[in-house]
Amino acid sequence: MFMVSFLTFLYGFICVFTVFLVLLQRGKSSMGLGNLGGSNQALFGSSGGQDIFQKITWACLVIILTGSLGLSVLKGRYGKSNFSSYLPKQAQQSAPTDENAE
User: Fold this and answer.
1) Which of 40, 46, 50, 71 is 20 to 30 Å from 86 at the Cα level?
2) How far, in Å, CA of 8 to CA of 6, rounded?
3) What is the pLDDT at residue 35?
4) How many C-beta atoms surround the C-beta of residue 4 within 10 A?
5) Alpha carbon of 9 to those of 6, 42, 68, 73, 97: distances in Å?
6) What confidence tens digit (pLDDT) does each residue in 3-20 have?
7) In contact, 53 and 25? CB cutoff 8 Å
8) What is the per-residue pLDDT for 13?
9) How confident is the model at residue 92 (pLDDT cuts 50, 70, 90)?
10) How far is CA 57 from CA 18, 48, 54, 68, in A?
11) What is the pTM for the complete model shown?
12) b/e for 59-98, b at 16 or more Cβ within 10 A?
């Protein structure tokens, strides 16, 4: 259970790190609908190469996608729902039997 909690914390840290990393990157001119007028810049840049921020962003993206899948599998196997303690106790009702039906 500790390992699932630690991996969830690490996953959250990587998500926040990726947000800050994306905000640090510089823009590639106007990328909105106003850029449809025949500019020669491609959507992902015409320079060809990626700088170190873009490579780290792609690596973080892969970690986020695989981490999401992995954590959902681990939570399904080993984790208990945190909301189960807040749910009201259901009254146990016995199912009607066919003994009295004859």
Assistant:
1) 71
2) 5
3) 52
4) 15
5) 5, 37, 12, 16, 50
6) 888 889 999 999 999 999
7) yes
8) 96
9) very low
10) 6, 16, 5, 16
11) 0.58
12) ebeebeeebeeebeeeeeeeeeeeeeeeeeeeeeeeeeee
